[in-house]
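**Protein record**
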Amino acid sequence: MSAFSPRTPYARLHDMTSADEQTTYFRKGFGLKADVQGELGADYNGRVVDALREHEYTLTVDDVTIRLASEFGFCYGVERAVEYAYQTRRKFPDRRLLLVGEIIHNPHVNAKLRAMGIEILEPDANGAFDFSAIHPDDVVILPAFGVTIAAFESLRSIGCVLVDTTCGSVLNVWKRVEAYARDGFTALIHGKYYHEETRATASQVMKYPGGSYLVVRDMNEARYVCDFIEGRGSRDELLAKFAKAASPGFDPEVHLRRVGVANQTTMLAKESLAIGEEVGQAIARARGDAARASAFRTFDTICSATQERQDAVMALLEEPLTAMVVIGGFNSSNTISLAAICAERVPTYHIEDASGIDPEAGTVHFRRAGIQHVEATQAGWLPGTGPARIGVTAGASTPNNKIGETVARILATRGLVLQPV
């Protein structure tokens, strides 16, 4: 059993010295990994994926070839979060368990946790949670995305047990953003202002008086900010545009003088890097290279798993492919990023799970890449005859068994049967 570590970003908010406090915050599980491995394997492992790995990520049945990207699916942070949830259920079999939002963005994993008796709290329209029904004898799991400082403080004040599954890559971004605020820099975050991870990251600036942040969704929004830095654009228009994406009391004339760039860990890596460069150049054009050196900071805080999955799919796209199937929750940011990369090169279908493919109807129900929350159903997505090479990848919150089920349905669309492996 591993109790509270004073080095965690959450920890610095509290003077946790009592024996009671030291046994109500856990970040490293309960020493029950071996006890839950069998259950985890039964719920999420996939023999089809194992077979693909053994055959250089390739499976050919008749004239249909499936090519799986070399990096895909569950990352370490996701595996850790899900495992800790299972350990928590095993550790506290008779206690009420609650989860602050979805543990990861995969509907099957979250449904499994509900079936295990873990209650998932839903945020309101502003992303806030109501903790009024939580009691000191409850056990609350914090998701892989982390939670805001305000949410953490509220939960600590209740006195319930907290099991913190926040991903280490997210913690690294928090440290960076916290350092920006400490040194008087505004954190310019490439991310989605409404995303749980970005909300939690942005809240880190509140550790320091006057801490400020601004969230930009993409390069277009970043260039809007750059225009203001270079003396173009209206203060009121900028405040209106980023009303939901800026810290309270944000004043662009003050807070865009010193900028540090960070990002939500699951965004497109190349875009995050490009945004950092664009902002740095804008400061240099407006105030000179000396200002860029002293008033601008940027670091690549894309997590390694996100980068590896994006690199692997780029390598796969070098091959001739008929289509690309990307598997993962429609609200999964890293899956959306993978689909965006693929859509630039080949017809791409982002499906939430295997059920998005209907072999009998010959249709696929998918989320259109690059268009927020727009779904469509398409017939004839897979040619009825002739050789076909279908690329497959999956977001970091997609379990292997869901990848295997998808492969089976792709083949079934052509009337082919995946032999047991």
